[in-house]
Structures are given as C-alpha cells and as structure tokens.
Amino acid sequence: MKATPGHLVFFSSRKRLHRIFCAYSLLLFSLFGVLAGCSQQKATPTYRIGFSQCTNGDAWRQAMLAGMNKELSFYPEVSFRMKDAKYNSALQEQQIKEFLKEGIDLLIVSANETEPVTPIIEEVYNRGIPVVILDRRTTSKLYTAYVGGNNEEVGLMAGNYVANLLGQRGKVLEVLGAPGTSPAVDRHRGFTKALATHPGVQLVGEVNSNWERPSVLARLPAVLRQHPDADLIFAHNDRLALGAYQVCKQLGLSQRVKIVGVDGLPGIHGGIQLVQDGVINATLLYSPGGEEAIRTAMRILRKQPYDKENTLGTLVIDSTNVLIMKLQTEKLTSQQQDIQRQQQLLRQQRDTYASQQTVLYVLAAALLGAAVLGLVAFRAFRVNRRINQTLGKQNQEIRSQRNQLQEFAERAKVETEAKLRFFTNFSHELRTPLTLILGPVEEMLTASTTDLPATHRHDLSLIRRNAQRLLQLVNQLMDFRKIDVGKMPVRATEGNLVAFVREIMDVFEKPARQRGISLRFLPAEPVIRLWFDVNILDKVFFNLLSNALKFTPDRGQITVSLQLVPAENSVRVSVEDTGRGISEQDRAHIFEWFYQGQQSAARGSGMGLALALGLTRLHLGQLTFTSQPGQGSTFVVTLPLELPPALKQLDAAPQVTPAFALEEGIAAAPATVGELPTLASSEALVLVIEDNPDVNAFLTQKLQPHFQVSSAFDGATGLRLAAESIPDLIVCDVMLPEISGLDVVAQLKGDWRTSHIPVVLLTARNAPEQQVEGVQAGADLYLTKPFNPTFLLESLRTLLANRDKMREHFRRELSVDTVTVAPQRVDQKFLADLTAIVEANLGRSDLSVEDVARSLGISRVQLYRKVKAVLGTGVTDFIQGIRLTKARQLLLDDEQTIAEVAYQLGFSSPSYFSTSFKARYQVSPSEFRALHTTPSV
C-alpha cells in the first residue's frame, strides 16, 4: 500500500509521543524506587520450626498445640509447621524425614513410641539441627533439650494421694495407658512404688488401654466383675477416668468407687470440670508444655542460655482447690483473648498505615504524571487535529467497502438459503415414495408366514433392506449439504458421554454376536460429563461402529475406549477393529466425500467417514485414524471438554435422547451395520446348564437352528453367564455338581437381574413330589428325561411368547396409569420401585438414567438391560412415558396452564413438552384439553 502524506505525519507524531512517554515512564520508576527505598525496613530473620506430633486427636494434645500457637503469636518471624502421625510410628518417622527435605531450623518431637523414632531423632541431631523432646522421652541422650512432666513423679504423687484418700486401707484398680509408651510405664512405676510404702492399700487389678475412652468401656467391666470390692480406680488420663466413671455408673458402683485421673485440663470437657462436677474425685495436673517448648526453642535459636532438662511441675486438684484452679485458668484464658485482640488491632493499624502510605506515594506520582501528561497533551493536540482529518477520509473509504461486503454477504446468504431449500424439498420428495414403499413391504412381511412363499419373502426382505439403505443415503446426503452450507447448528447439552456411547454400542451387540465378533467397551472413568450434541455425536459414533463392524471378519474384535486427557483439556473416544486395514493408496482419500476405496468388497456410499469427519469438526473436535494392512484400523474422536457458550443449550432439553435415537435409528437404517437379519426367533439367546457333555452337546445341536445357544457345565458358571449375558431363556438340569438345579432356579428368581427369565428344568427324577419341588423352586416348566426334542422346542417358543405377552401387559399397565400392579413377584416389585423413584423425581428436568440407577443401588447397564428385557423399551423412554401419562391427568385440570404442567413434570420448556406430547398422542396439549374438558358456562 502506498504511503500518503497523512500517514507520514501520523508516523512522525507517533515517534515523538513514544519518546515522551518513555521519558515519563523512566521518571515514574525512579520516583517509586526512591519512595520504596525510603519505606524499606530491615527484614527480620525467619526461623522454621517443625513439630512432629504423635497424634492431635485428643484434648490434651490439642491443648499442647493451642499453647504453642499462643506463644508463637509473640514471634511473628517464626514459620511453624505441624505433622500429625496419628499414633503411627512409621508415619512419624517418614514425616520427620520430610521435615529434613523441606528444611527446618529446629525440630520439636512428641514421640509415639520411644524405640522406633529414636534413630531418626539421632540422625536429625547429628546433622546439627537442634531437637526439643516434648512430653515423651526417647531412649537416647542425643537431643538438645527436653520439656515435659516427670511421669514417675506423677505416679508417686498419685499413689500417696490415693493412700491418704482411702485412709491407708483399700483396694485399687489401675487403668494404664498404651503398653510400651513411656508415660504409661513411668506412671505405673511411680504409682506402684508409692503404694509399696502403704501396706494397707493393695493394687488388685490392671486394665490396659490405648489412651482413649472406648477401650476402657470395653475392658473395665470384666475386671470390675472380678473385683467387685474395689474402692478406687486410678486412670492414667482424664479421658480414661471419664470412661471408668461411665462403667461404674452402669454397674451401680459410681457412689462407692472413687476415681482419680491425670491431666487436669481446663474447659468444659477437661479434668478440672470433671472434679468440680463430682464425676471424678481428683486429677493430677500434667501440663501439656506447649508454651514452654516454644520458649525453649526460641532461646536455642536466638543463642540464648537454656536448660537441657525442663521438668514441668505437677499438683493434685481435688475439691479443696478445684475452684481456685478453674478461676485461674479462666483468667488466663481471658487475658490471652485480650492479648490476641490487641495483636489483631495492632495488625489492623499497621495495615492502615501501610495503605495510607501507599496512597500518599500514588498521589505524589499522579501529580507529577498529570503535569507531564498536560505538556504532552498540549503538544499532541495540534498534531492529532491534522491526523484526524486524514483518518476521516480513510474511514469514509472503509465504510464504503464495508457496505459492499455486506451486500455480497446478503447475496450469498440468499443463495445459501436457496440451496438448502432445494435439498430439503428434494429430500422430502424422496422420502415420500420411500415411505409408501416401506409401509406395504413391512405389512406384507409381518403377515402370516403360511400365506407368503419363501422366495417372495426373500424378495420382499431384499426390497425393504435396499429401501432402508436408500433412505439412509438420503439422510446422509442431507447432512452433507447442511454441513456444506453451514446450516447444521450445534445444540449441546450436558450429559454422561460414557452412558451415551454405551447405549450406541448396545445396538451392535446382536449383529456382532451373530458373527462371533467380540465387542469390548473400555472407559477409563465410570462417568465423563461434558457438553455435547447428542444428534451429531450419535451419527459420528454410529458411522464409525458401522464401518468397524462391516470390515471386521467373523470371530474378530472391536474395542471402544474412552479416556480423559487433562493436559489437552479433551476426551478421546477410539474405535479399534481387527479388520483388513486401510491400504496406502486409500489413506489419503479416506475422508473424501463419495470415495469408495480400491477394495473390491464391502463397497459403500463413500459418505459415512466423510460425514463423521464433518460432524466432528462441526463439534469443534478432531477425527484421526491409524491403520496397518492386515491388522486393523483405529479411528480416534477427540472432543473438547468445554464448548463456547454460544453452542450450549442452557435452558432446553436435548432434542433427541440417545435411547430414542438409537432405537429408532437402527430400525430405520440397518444397512449401515452390514447385513443385519430381520427380527426372528433365532435372535433369542438360550442358556443351557448341563453337566453331562453328551446331553449338553445334544441340546445345543437341537436348539442352535432355532436360537442362539450358550452353554455351561455347572451351576456356578451358569449363574455367572446368566447375570452377564441376560439370556432370553434357560434350560437347566436338576442334578448339577456343587450347586443343584433347584438352587440355581431359586437364585435366578431371587435376583432382580434374572428374575424375568423363564427356566426349564430337565431331570431324570420323575416322581410327582419331585416335580412339585421343581415348580415350587420357581421353574416355569419341568420336563423329565427322556424328553421329546420337538416338544421341548415348542415349549421354549411358548415360554418366549408368554414372556412377550407379560412384557406387553406391564407396558399397558404403565401406559394407563403410572402405578404398576401389586408387587407380588420380583419383576413387579422392581417395576413398582422404579416407577416410585421416577414419580418422586418428576419435577427434576435433569433426571438421568444414572440418577435412577443410583437410587435403586444398581449400575446403569444393569438397569438398562433389566428394563429392556421386562418392558422392551429404554429407560429414557420409560421416564418420558410416565411424564406424558401424568401430563394427561394434569391437563384435565383447567386451573393449571400448559406451561405450569410442563414445568411441574420436569420438562425444560413448554415447547419441548408440546412437541413430546404431540409425538406420543398425535394431538397437542391444548387440543387434548379442549377434547376432554367442558368449557364453563
């Protein structure tokens, strides 16, 4: 573009402004540097203290930590960290090693057990890091200082006090702390040593504990029953003393047996309060030592004189001095609260001072900046006036060009609308004759088989299959044109991608099973929630699975896996097959429209993969593939975890749920998954459970021409296969190893997953009482050996027909009223519970299959298979049917508007409710109300 004089003036002015602003910025930075230097204060040193606590789960340990925090409030330069080992010596050793890696200046240790942690404490000390032992000693003298009470002295004082309290005569029980801990050992040693000087006082029993009250409640009653004449209980802490009191109260001994504890903590649950309330007779003060530990640590860190042994004093708190002790502790607590309030006020004042100082600096800088900017603005005003005149002319030219672009865009829009209208009308014109072809053909095929010769039926099936294929091609061509002209919008709703893909795969289970293809589903997570358009991704995954099934040979394998990729903020869905793979010459064209490849077999329309790629890109995702000739192909769909808000439907339900789309789509387009056979009795799966190999093979041979057959040779395997595959019918022998046939029937009928499956029992036992026993176990038919194979085959067909009638009966029950039949059998009970859960959540627009399954305590797959087997429909269709049935009742009430009915039943919008209602009943809600209500006069 050629430079004009106006551009040269503008560029020259920009350079001058740039130099002025650079000088101004340098001046401001210099000013702030000076101000910051004036306000900079000398940094205070920071000390890092690590505290390894054996546990912080009891009041005494919490009081220790509270004392530390109280003392630390006077040392703001200290960084303090605590690690709680939770009574785990190995964990405490690991936590001390972590302190060493993190870097500390001093370590405070309250050991869980003396022996296990002694080596690591010695290692810390040998590294030159000061170590303060708190409360529990170690077996080594390699430490800097010790802070804690003298547990042996506590035991001595307790023994002398107990002797005086009992008048130098009586029997005593001792509740010890955890075995092996130094406080328990020392207190017991001092207590027994003191009692030795008082011959009239006998220690008649001991109870071990873990320092916690529940252990006393479990162990003390037995000891008290052995020594009912005990006069006093000495507990190693106040929690154990409280437990002893509760046990004595339960046994009716609380008025006679005296109790003495240790700790003497303040507070409503502390030992001082227990003495004042008369729960225990006395407690010995055993200071937690938190404040003393921090004071000793700070003297060590500041290189000040300190004592290596800091033994805390103790005293007896009983009725004579408990009030004074309580008042003193309350006074100390009040004073500490006052100190904390004053410190908080001081911090607030410092913050206020700092903010005011900052405002002052900013104001000074702003004044200086205003003066500089005034000079710059005055000099730039004259230059900008000339530049604006030049820019005005250029803006006029830009506006003229923009108007031309808008005209071109409007013209292209009109042409695009015309193209889309043409293809839409053309598609509708093709669908009309296809509907007229498919309707009579379906009617003829469903007529009586005796009236239609086999050759004619074969020709009609060929006509139906190719008509459905033509309809599918029309739909794909329409999608292609919508993508091409940008008229296929993305309407994403939030859902579970794992459940969505699982339901699509359910469609391919039968055709895959008929060809012996293993269909595996491997999600990395049980639930992956994201925003996606069900209509778009349904076509993408349907085409990929159809393509995989078409090119996978019999006895092959198809694997679908889902994996979150947090690093890329995406989720990957891969479809892997073991087919022939993609040749080198086809790889560059595999995603081209109408490209059919160089392979002679399995030719298609050439639109499936191209459509899948276009729809994936439309969903802001990627579709890639890898392939090795002779080993198979893998197609990977990568979807973003987040979509732009413009693509999300926050106030609308999904247009088509996956269950509807799959159940209707597979019926409308079976050609996409290869040669899918028409529905016949051979699709029914029969499970044979027979331990005799010859009989098992005979049954399989006779049933295979008419059904799909799987077999098991024992009851346990049969039960497992029944729960996994959910067969349509089970033929079971009575005499089976380990689990009998009668037990197999009882377990099948008692399990909701298999309760609906008819069971035929075969046995050589033909006594009437044995047959009655089989029927009582729940068998639907009892046949004795030898049996007529033809009679068995017809019996199986009759049982399957009866099951279909029962399923239709359940569906009619549900379509007339949302209340199911009385739950007399397992299936009826299951339907009653399922309906009750749905009715209780009708108002939830976000009610999902996962929510219903979670309420029933089962998995989504189990719920789907059960509902499919009992009702012949999907879970989503079941929920929708209950909502629409309830809608008919509510619409008869003129006091509620149609919109209120829609929201009351959990529909996201009245329009979606009207569409769903009309699709089910062929009339809109308003028309239904007008037909069934009488207008008021």
UniProtKB/TrEMBL annotation:
Reactions mediated catalytically: ATP + protein L-histidine = ADP + protein N-phospho-L-histidine
Every Response regulatory domain range: 685-800
Pfam families: HATPase_c, HisKA, HTH_18, Peripla_BP_4, Response_reg
Family annotation (CDD domains): HATPase_EvgS-ArcB-TorS-like (cd16922), HisKA (cd00082), PBP1_sensor_kinase-like (cd06308), REC_OmpR (cd17574)
Residue ranges annotated for the Histidine kinase domain, each copy included: 425-643
Domain HTH araC/xylS-type: 832-931
TM spans (from-to): 359-381
Superkingdom of origin organism: Bacteria
EC number in record: 2.7.13.3
Residues modified as 4-aspartylphosphate: 733
Coiled coil: 384-415
A single MF term (Gene Ontology): DNA-binding transcription factor activity
Keywords noted in UniProt: Coiled coil, DNA-binding, Membrane, Phosphoprotein, Transcription, Transcription regulation, Transmembrane, Transmembrane helix
Protein name stated in the entry: histidine kinase
